[in-house]
Design a protein that fits this description.
- The complex is a heterodimer of chains A (232) and B (241).
- Chain A has one domain (2-227).
- Chain A is mostly helical and 232 residues long.
- Chain A contains 7 helices and no strands.
- Chain B is α/β, with parallel strands linked by helices and 241 residues long.
- Chain B has one domain (3-239): Rossmann fold (3-Layer(aba) Sandwich).
- Chain B has 9 helices and 11 strands.
- In chain B, the strands form 2 sheets. In chain B, strands 3, 6, 7, 8, 9, 10 and 11 form a 7-stranded mixed β-sheet that branches. In chain B, strands 2-1-4-5 form a 4-stranded antiparallel β-sheet, with helices on one face.
- In chain B, a hairpin with a 2-residue loop joins strand 1 (3-13) and strand 2 (16-27).
- Classes of the chains: A mainly alpha (232), B alpha/beta (241).
- The interface between A and B is medium-sized, with 23 and 29 residues.
- Chain A: Keywords: Membrane, Transmembrane, Transmembrane helix.
Chain lengths: 232, 241
């Protein structure tokens, strides 16, 4: 716990920027899709009159941007400690390698998750409140349950992408490889996220939870690998 | 007294034997110079002692403590080391690096880092980024880090690299002071620098080590001292390989 508190305190400087980026991006995407839905009368944009679709697309857009930004941060504070000769500095600390790795992962995930959850929730809430005052959508805004489901689903999926990209970077011994992996994973996950969020938020939440379970299992395997790793 | 013993240590890589250390014993109060040609296995041996490389066979013992995966964390508490500088620390401030080090070594953080930095003649602000320091200043910073937790064993891989003459003299002075109650193991390609500070020497070539020999004995047995001791052992192992 002592080490977890320490790692969280080190990462707390990123909370503000992640939180603000999340809020700004989510609001921008919400208004973008709402405006397109309101003013574009073509048949293709019919779906953009539905509040759940606007929320789904906005959350997916925010998720994509944050996954890449989060991976940039992860490369600096996580991946960088486990690639090449940089590993020496980390492995020479008198603490179990596996335990330190899990602590860093947990601290990173907690900081990113809390920044995103707060950011997404506030942005969605602000949008919904402003909708009552200056209505853009033809439908009522989404209810609180749908809102919370999309917030948590979006957060879990984003963290899953960031961590999987980080694991790929560590395994392939390069920060650039993490970045490339994050772009590829964003492309793969974003379609899945958008379609499931539009269809059913609960299915999206299940997909997000399953992604996190996969990430945890991969993380546990990575930890075992790090325990037996060598710096040649 | 601290003693580190290495027995029958072996390590292979891609089918090639890179380490075959029969017996080596180092005690506190001595400065051991580990010399050898490039690729001989010097850094590999030091990394084995620090748990960065897992040997295929043999044993490394610190007093009664045998190094393995379970005892590695405890082992590392007694070791201070400086290896090649890694660029992961360049974006960190001096304060961040020192804070992390003090946290994980369970040391009480001082009010400021001034005294620690002064010990290695660094007049810099802790808010500075490590990447903005010169190579020699980074080397001295890492040395300050390595000795901050008062380790029983100090491992310095090429500590004079990148240092100006003042830096070299300061490092030698520090090593001499620290050696009073520690095991100090250093590697260097400069016999002149080693002759000034080491008390014992080991030569390594093709992963094999000579026995530990006192510098005084080397100087009396060999015309050119350490250089001749080194050349003879390298010639001997070359003929065997």
């Amino acid at each position: 716990m002592r080490n977890l508190h320490f790692e969280i305190s080190r990462l707390s400087k990123f909370f503000g920027s992640l939180n603000l980026t999340t809020m700004v991006l989510q609001l921008l995407f919400l208004y973008f899709f709402a405006l397109v839905g309101r003013f574009d009368r073509s048949d293709d944009s019919n779906i953009l009159t539905h509040s759940n679709v606007i929320l789904a697309l906005a959350t997916t857009g925010t998720m994509c941007a944050l996954a890449i930004y989060g991976t940039v941060v992860a490369c600096q504070i996580l991946v960088g400690n486990y690639v090449g000769t940089n590993k020496s500095q980390t492995y020479l600390l008198p603490v179990g390698r596996k335990s330190l790795f899990y602590t860093k992962l947990a601290a990173f995930s907690l900081v990113v998750a809390s920044a995103m959850i707060v950011g997404l929730f506030i942005a969605d809430l602000v949008f919904n409140i402003l909708e009552f005052l200056f209505q853009l959508m033809t439908e009522q805004p989404t209810g609180i349950l749908d809102l919370l489901t999309s917030v948590f689903a979006g957060t879990f999926l984003t963290i899953a992408i960031i961590l999987l990209s980080s694991f790929i970077g560590i395994k392939l011994n390069g920060k650039v490889k993490s970045m490339i992996a994050s772009i590829v994973l964003v492309i793969l996950f974003s379609n899945l996220a958008a379609i499931t969020m539009m269809a059913s938020k609960f299915i999206t939440l299940i997909v997000a939870v399953v992604s996190m379970v996969i990430v945890i299992l991969v993380g546990l395997t990575m930890g075992n690998g790090i325990e037996n790793d060598e710096v040649l | 007294m601290t003693r580190i013993t290495i027995e029958h240590l072996t390590k292979s890589l891609s089918g090639r034997n890179i380490l075959q250390v029969k017996n080596l014993s180092c005690e506190s109060g001595e400065v051991y110079g580990l010399v050898g040609p490039n690729g001989a296995g010097k850094t590999t041996l030091l990394k084995c002692i620090c748990g960065l490389i897992i040997p295929d066979g043999g044993e490394i013992q610190l007093n009664e403590l045998v190094l393995d995966r379970r005892t590695r964390s405890t082992f590392l508490k007694h070791i201070g080391s400086v290896f090649a500088q890694s660029d992961s620390i360049f974006d960190l401030t001096i304060d961040t690096l020192l804070t992390e080090h003090y946290h994980y070594f369970c040391l009480k953080r001082p009010k400021d880092w001034h005294e620690l930095l002064q010990n290695v003649a660094l007049e810099i602000t802790p808010k500075q980024k490590i990447g903005s320091l010169s190579l020699g200043m980074r080397q001295r910073l890492l040395l300050a880090l390595a000795i901050s937790h008062d380790p029983s064993i100090l491992i310095l891989d090429e500590p004079f690299n990148g240092l100006d003459p003042d830096g070299v003299n300061l490092t030698k002075k520090l090593i001499n002071n620290l050696a009073k109650d520690k095991v100090v193991i250093i590697t260097s390609h400069s016999f002149a620098d080693l002759n000034d500070i080491i008390t014992q020497s080991v030569v390594i070539a093709h992963g094999q080590t000579s026995g530990v020999k006192k510098l005084a004995a080397i100087k009396s047995d060999f015309t050119d001292g350490l250089a001749d001791f080194y050349r003879e052992f390298v010639r001997h192992t070359n003929s065997l390989n």
